[in-house]
What does this fold into?
Amino acid sequence: IVQQALEEIQNCENSSELNSVRVKYLGKKGIVTSLMKKLKELAPEERPIFGAAVNKAKNELLKKINEKLDELSQREKEKKYAAMAVDVTLPGARKDIGHFHILTQIQKELEDIFISMGFSVVEGPEVEDTWHNFDALNTPEWHPARDVQDSFYFTDKILLRTHTSPVQIRTMLNTQPPIAIISPGRVYRRDYDATHLPMFTQMEGLFVDKNVTVKHLKYCLEEMVTRVFGKDAKIRLKPSFFPFTEPSFEVDVWFGNDWLEILGAGMVDPNVFKSVGYDPEIWSGFAFGLGLERIAMVKYGIKDIRDFIRNDVKFLENY
Ligand code: PHE
It folds into this structure.
């Protein structure tokens, strides 16, 4: 019986098989256990010998079972750990965490460029009054730019700013020259098609000091353009008109084998200096206003300005 049992123990492949073998021999109704019950059927003098033999067998089997159990559970533990093991050399699963909107990227890029040239970033309110948005910028009541057709008015004196130029006025009113600021922000006009949005983004620039000339303006814009569009990009100034600059220019960039208009600029009109209490005999300056959507469209060949506000992830992921 012992021989048979030892063999069965040896052949066990896992702890539950081993447990069955244990029950079979040593359980309450097990083979070895039932041998003990036979004791009383024996002659009294045979009992001690028989009992000792059965006990010895029982102890031997118990010992073997425990040894086997140790061995099996060790092996089972190893198997379990192997299954749980993590290969730390595998690349992690990448989570798409998103990124800045194309316009925000362009804004930050331009801010960095102008900050590196000594400009500070300032902001102004999107709800303006007609004085800051027009009058102080040499744009009197009768001027066509003030046409209600083009602007969003709340009352006859309060409107959504049509450009970032009122920030020029606000800055000059609360600082003294020299001034070098840029001002990014949203502006609003009654316009809507593939190249116009009723809400779009501009960046104003204002530089005021003594003896400022068109050369300073040109240098500044050339620096910006080569850093945004690459070192082969060039600019050209074409005569234009804005009420708040004289002379005024439209500025084109040479990019992708074409001249493309990217901004308006000019030398600050003496009347603007007068409206903020600066002496135009002492102070001079340049200003520019660029459309951030426009810059992005030129740089990336985007054809429809409405793509910026569609929230189409397929589009946004390209930039
Ligand atoms: N404010 C002008 C516009 O919105 C742009 C501009 C700004 C032109 C500053 C000259 C100087 O079109």
Notes: The longest strand covers residues 199-209. The longest helix spans residues 47-84. The radius of gyration is 44 Å.
